[in-house]
Inverse folding.
């Protein structure tokens, strides 16, 4: 298997890549957030998810204020090199609304 090279990933014009966060055991999708190169490096180093906030224009570690951390189990990238999938052990809820997942509403 070829060694991973961060420079191969295709970040958008703003330097971001969409990142899906999923439960490592059940496959439940918790959330979608964005990473840039630095937040991905921080995620790998810390073993906790770190994202770039598009609204606040700053880095944030999931759980830093809420205590609802996401401990990284594995990181995958897709075939087009333009999206990430991070499998985590979620502590507490993932959504800022207090729901376990950000995907709690269904289109009927």
């Amino acid at each position: 298997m070829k060694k991973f090279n961060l420079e191969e990933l295709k970040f958008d014009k703003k330097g971001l890549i969409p990142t899906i966060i999923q439960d490592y055991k059940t496959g439940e999708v918790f959330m979608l957030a964005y990473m840039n190169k630095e937040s991905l490096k921080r995620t790998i180093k810390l073993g906790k998810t770190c994202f770039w906030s598009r609204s606040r224009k700053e880095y944030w570690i999931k759980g830093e204020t809420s205590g609802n951390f996401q401990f990284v189990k594995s990181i995958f990238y897709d075939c087009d090199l333009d999206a990430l999938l991070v499998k985590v052990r979620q502590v507490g809820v993932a959504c800022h609304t207090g729901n376990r997942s950000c995907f709690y509403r269904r289109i009927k």
